[in-house]
Amino acid sequence: MIKEIYRNKLVWIVIFIQVAFTYQVWASNTDRVLLISSYNSSFPTYFQQIEGIKSVLDSLEIQLDIESLDSKRFNDSIIYKLNGQLLSHKLSKGLKYKAIIVSDDNALDFILQRQERLFKGVPIVFLGVNDINKAIIQNQNPLITGVGEMVSMEETINVMLKLFPEKKQLYVISDATKTGKVDLENFTDVIKKYEGVEVFTVSLENFSFEEMGYVLQQVDEEVPVLLLSALQDKNGNTMDFYSSLKLVKAHLKSPLFHLFQHGMGRGILGGKLVSHYEQGKSAAIIVSRLLYGEDISNIKVQYESLNHYEFDYYELEKYNVDKSLLPSTSVIINMPDNVFYKYRKTIILILCFLLVQLAIIVLLIINVRRKRKAQKDLVDQVSEYQSLNEEYVSLNEQYQSINEELNTKNNDLLAAEEELRANLEELAESNRAFEISEERFKLAAEASNNGVWDWNLITNEVYFSPVWKQILGYEDDELLNVFETWKDNMYEEDVNEALAHIDKYIKGESVIYRTEFRMKHKNGKLKNILSQGLMMRDSNGKAYRMIGSHEDLTSRYHYEENLKAQIEENLSLYEEYKTISEELILKNEALIKSEDIVKRNYKALEEKTQQLIESEEKYRLLFNNINEAFALHEIITDDNDNPTDFIYRDVNPVFLKNVGLRYEDLVGKKATELFPGIKLTWIDRYGKVALTGQSDYFLDHSSKLGKSYDVHVFCPKTGFFGAIFKDVTETLKAEKELMAERERISYVLEGTKAGTWDWDIEKDEIVINERWANIIGYKKDEVGILSYREWMKSLHEDDIIRISSTLGKVFSREIDYYDVEYRQKHKNGNYLWLHARGDIMEWTGLGKPLRMCGIHLDITSRKEAELKVIESEKRFKTIFDKSRTIMVLVNPATLQIVDVNDSAILFYGYTKEEFLKLTGLDIAVLSFDELRVKIRVALEKGKNYFSTKHKLKSGEIRNVDIYLSLIDVDHKKMLHIIIIDTTKAVEAEYQLRKVNQRFIGLENIIHYSANSINDLLDFTLKQVIDYTQSDTGAVYHYDEDKNLFVLNNFSNDVRLSLTFDSGNNINNLDCLSRAVRLKEAVIINDPKSSYPFIKEETADKFGAYKSIAIPVLENDKVVSIFWLGSKTNQYSKFHVEQVMLLLETAWILVERQRLQDQNKLV
């Protein structure tokens, strides 16, 4: 670690020298950089940041000026404003800066508010910013970049729980400073990942320093504590960091962790710490790049962690911490001098070097000895090969001379007799082998779960296995083994199509025979049958035999139908719930809009109503300025002082505008002249005011003008009256609309079955309407006016805290309106589900709520429907989890596995936690594109399933059928996958196919005309290679006397000979030697290396082969080995059994050929 630190420092020094050297060419002594710090000199990180910055800028001879905001001690708007004014004043004196550095979140906020005004065009670099989102957003600002302060919260918590795991508890200390809040939010997000860990928060936002000390005294000494920030308490009192650290340590007996380097050595145990020196250094390097000419927009915000693990030795000893549990890269300060510990890495390296040297020496000695032995063995083997070769040449010459003599003899008759006798014996042996094979076939058919049938197309003989008949409900002796049995028991509608499939397969028009049809069970019900088979043809391609199986698919079809029905039921319930929910939302929105309109109209009416006529004296003084129509009249009376008319003495412009006359046409004229139809009752009413001095107020409508007026009549002096005409046409119209709106709201409330409530918060009185009371089974008179406490008593106890919390958020304006669902007791004792919405209508001047209004709706039916949906989902979940069928839920958008049942866990071998980290492609053998093709082909055939292969955790590959359907889970579309393991069925089908292939290979070997034993063995090897789908193979003859394997014929892949390995450990022997030792077949499917008889060029090209070595025995002695190799295919005991059957027949032919060769020699 120390070397790495020195190496990093050396790299930085080289970079700094290069930058400084280049910069000296053009930099001047007057270049300045300004640092704006959020803190003051008493804060511990203040000088660490400055030292980091100066470590770079001093080498470039850049002058660093520093401005301190002191925001940790004085975090208020006045100080911010004064700091801004002071900095502005300084800059106005001509100070120019090449770049600005700001430290911590407060300084960044300060500079962002003043960037355009004070630092336009100047590059800005920040450091120590905790709010990473805010830091990253600055990538969009073309003149700002910097270094984010990534605290290692999760890593430090991991260390705390690892070193002190006993209690599974954590304490965290924080305060109300901006940095403290950000760190606490970060801590809260991270700690959610730790299930079972109990967390206690000691926040100075709620405690004083004294109260915090008392709380810390109660902490158990085995419970670790994380210090985030403790600089300001709830009373606004502040402390510098070291004073607050001293206070914490004075009351705390538990281990204390921190996220920052300051405080180390003063009672903090450690953590993964932020180094403010490195922060300052990184920021200064960015500034140097800018001064060098690099464009700031090309330098993105850095937020990678610069942190390191650091611990105090004394604190580790104090709490008996096992140092082996510390992260390997940890730095331990205050470590006492210890020669071994100080130079432990060097000592360990020297010891490792010596051990490696010793191992090399030993290996060299062993290698020299092996080389000498190999040289000796090679010399012996070469001489042996030379003698063998000479012997082989001599024998070959003798064989050629004898063969020439035999060819001259014309003994065709004897040869023919011998050949005929041999053919008869061969035929008898073949018949016996065939009978054995037929017996094995019947035993396999009886052991299978599927029904097996065998149809001889030549004789029309049919064999149906007992299981075939059991599928239809019959015993073995109840159905005849004739073709009509199959045809008569088939469902009539499917007969023609099934026969057509067979006809096409016999004619060779289709490659495989695989079809589905229905057959009649003994009880009268229909069974869904999957029929598949293979054809045997002669050398002319004519079909002579057909073998196949029947699989009962009825239970699978029933399961699919039940599953579809369940899914359709779930979808139906979901659509019903969705429709109800949408209707309620629409009705609720309409009601809210109606309420808003009523409020606005009511307010408008109230404002206009307040515009009443004031005193008569005031209206006389404001005659010409009044906004309403005004007219002054003189009353005319008869001799009995009865009013008969009145004269217009003065009018204002508004009056003239309303009547449509000019001033001179109106003033001085009598009313009866101007308005001949005027009613005498009006003259009497006006006269009463003019003569008695009593004011009057009434509503008048002018049909001529088509307007309505509020008329206020008063008497300025005896015989005169003044009239103010207020046009209320629009007001009356608004009142009518308001009444209509109220009527509509009433209809809406009645239509939505909503109850209304009006809460006078100051008086604690809740007024309700009739519907509100009816919902809970009462009449309005029975309920009366409620108090808040009385209302709360009727609520379900589980809902009270949630309702109180929501109301508190509305009162504090954290949320815009009140919206909550809760349960309230009905008169009959049951609880109903209600949905309430409301808002504050009036507030006090101090921002306290006065009045709140709203509605509530009965949503019991909807809730019951939701519960039914939840129950349905629970039933599905229970069926899903406990079903014996393998099931998986997959997100169709991402293919992420979101749930699996117990059967899937048992089948695949993954735990549920491991499963949820996988995608569907992680367990599939095929690629996504290959799977998509399979699904498309299945859909085109009208099927909802397809066959493929899946990979288990163990690496085993299994054959599966996949059934897909799209369902809703928690209101999300999920892919429901049913997986059927078909490995055994596929294996049975494969084995049946292999048996047929073996028959074909056997027939080929029997009819092969061999030139020699070697020729016959080579032909047999080719048949075996084809049958097992191997890539290569060889036949070795084994000479027990010489312990030597000799190849039957030349091969490009294997060596001509190999010495038998007689080692004691049989597991270390090659497969040929092991087969000789065991006298049985050896299967190797996980080769660790290539075999010694494989040529080097073949081994380099193909690597290690999976292989099978099968010995051929005569008189209990191994005489030959058949070896097969494959790069990909796995071998099994089934391969051994089938190949052995082929070799038994082949060896009979070898003995016959050997007899023929001997006769020829005679």
UniProtKB/TrEMBL annotation:
The chain crosses the membrane at residues 347-366. Signal peptide: none annotated. Its EC number is 2.7.13.3. Residues 513-565, 818-871 form the PAC domain. Pfam families: ABC_sub_bind (PF04392), GAF_2 (PF13185), PAS_3 (PF08447), PAS_9 (PF13426). SMART domains: PAC, PAS. The keyword Kinase applies. Residues 371-437, 588-625 form a coiled coil. It catalyses: ATP + protein L-histidine = ADP + protein N-phospho-L-histidine. Residues 437-509, 741-814, 872-916 form the PAS domain. One of its GO terms (molecular function) is protein histidine kinase activity. Keywords: Coiled coil, Kinase, Membrane, Phosphoprotein, Transferase, Transmembrane, Transmembrane helix. It comes from the Bacteria. InterPro entries: ABC_transpt-TYRBP-like (IPR007487), GAF (IPR003018), GAF-like_dom_sf (IPR029016), PAC (IPR001610), PAS (IPR000014), PAS-assoc_C (IPR000700), PAS-like_dom_sf (IPR035965), PAS_fold_3 (IPR013655). This is histidine kinase. It comes from Plebeiibacterium sediminum.
